[in-house]
Amino acid sequence: MFKIWQSARKSGFGLGFMWGGLFMGWVALTLLGAGTAQAHDFRHGELVIDHPYATPSLAGTTTGAVYFKAIRNQGQTPDRLLSARTAVATRVEIHQMQMDGKVMRMRQVPALELPAQTEVSLRHGGAGTHHLMLLDMAKPLKDGERFDLELVFEKAGAKRLSVGVQTPRAARTEHPH
Fold first, then answer.
1. What is the C-alpha separation between 69 and 96, in angstroms, rounded?
2. pLDDT tens-digit map of 30-68
3. In terms of CB atoms within 10 Å, which end of the chain has fewer, N or C?
4. How deeply is 55 buried, as exposed, middle or buried, from its count of CB atoms within 10 A (0-12, 13-18, 19+)?
């Protein structure tokens, strides 16, 4: 440390400059860490909404999809996701993917059951998976954007959260919307 101080003093930079640089570095790391920690999960009573994200939509389309790593109900009482709303779409529907013979189809469901002490996945995937369908969007979703989404639960009430638009890491086959 002494050699660093001598070098800084000879070059015209003082101790205040060195401490200022260290402080600014600490602030930057703290802010970066806080942003990533908050972006991945949201707590709402006994519910944990883990990593909400939307996929970029194709140019010219008016639909999109929101997924979650999971919604965990850590409580002793079941709950249900009843609806969702956002300013980026006129309507939001809860959809479930189902096999119809050899064809994967999606259908709207009235609510998503969240049994007590369980985790429900809303990821890309096959039969039985759920997602939120964004309908009548004014413009397509682009990678890197963020938007607010409000989820309405039967018992826990409403929760507003931020959704990041991202291209999924694994090259998975997207289901057409």
1. 15
2. 344 433 334 477 888 899 999 999 999 988 899 999 999
3. N
4. buried
